Amino acid sequence: xxxxxITGAAGALGSVLRESLKGYADVLRLSDIADMGAARxxxxxxxxxxxxxxxxxxxxxxxxxxxxxxxxSREGAFEAILNANFRGTYHIFEAARQTGKQRVLFASSNHxxxxxxxxxxxxxxxxxxADSIYGVSxxxxxxxxxxxxxxxxxxxxxxxxGSCFPEPRDRRMLATWLSYADFTSLVKAMFDAAxxxxxxxxGASDNKEQWWDNGHAAFLGWHPxxxxxxxxxxxxxxxxxxxxxxxxxxxxxxxxxxAGHFEDD
Length: 265
Ligand code: NAI
Ligand code: 15L
Prior knowledge:
Shape: globular
Bound molecules: 1,4-dihydronicotinamide adenine dinucleotide, D-galactaro-1,5-lactone
Structural class: alpha/beta
Radius of gyration: 18 Å
CATH topology: Rossmann fold
CATH superfamily: NAD(P)-binding Rossmann-like Domain
Helix content: 25-40%
Distance between the termini: 48 Å
CATH class: Alpha Beta
Strand content: 15-25%
Largest sheet: 7 strands, parallel
CATH architecture: 3-Layer(aba) Sandwich
Strand order of the largest sheet: 3-2-1-4-5-6-9
């Protein structure tokens, strides 16, 4: 890998990969609309808006792979999601098509399937059940990834990330947690794979509670090493007993499924 682009590089996961992928590619090209600080050795820093196609075309040019993390990362105003997630994700795939055959990691989210009930274990064919406009934007990104492979051969992996944080913060995350180390190994596995097609992978660590089945993605050879179980006692001591009628407990998407429409008063 000569030059790997990471969008959303000023954000939480972008900052993690900026460290953990150091040396994985000769050059990490880091991009965000926000300030990322100065480029360090082996880095290029490009500040731009994903909603600006000309800027994204220039950003993607000369790269061999794209980790597309940039965008609105939770429920928010439609206009912001429209620009960053809908427009921005189209711009990434279209720029990849125009400039070559880069493989794209699309940071999808569990909120694309957030309205499934937690007793239902989901595999690759689970129907979309977005729990938010944000979740709808992730369904759209996955469909865009599939379209660009079927028509133009642009390979991708859409990772339905669960909850990628230093440690699980609540009882739901005992099932949805993805450690930073497992996320990093997944990124490497998808770029190291001989071929990905337009795959979808659930991004969760090897947790005892399993809501998602990655059997279909065994070809990637990704084996998460961490588990939320070691945090269970701490999490349970710090959080109330679950109310099984509460939508935030019943559904995979948790509080996103329970929330009303973002733009209502
Ligand atoms: P974050 O909010 O910390 O980072 C997102 C970055 O995107 C920010 O630095 C922001 O400035 C940038 N951005 C927003 N609009 C932009 C625009 N118009 N142009 C250029 N850059 C823009 O989010 P985080 O946690 O790092 O997540 C990264 C990705 O992974 C996001 O796409 C998110 O939806 C997805 N994801 C993250 C999960 C997690 O647990 N952290 C779970 C599921 C999905
Ligand atoms: C997401 O998609 C968000 O980006 C992240 O901040 C968390 O809320 C995560 O999902 C989650 O479901 O825990």
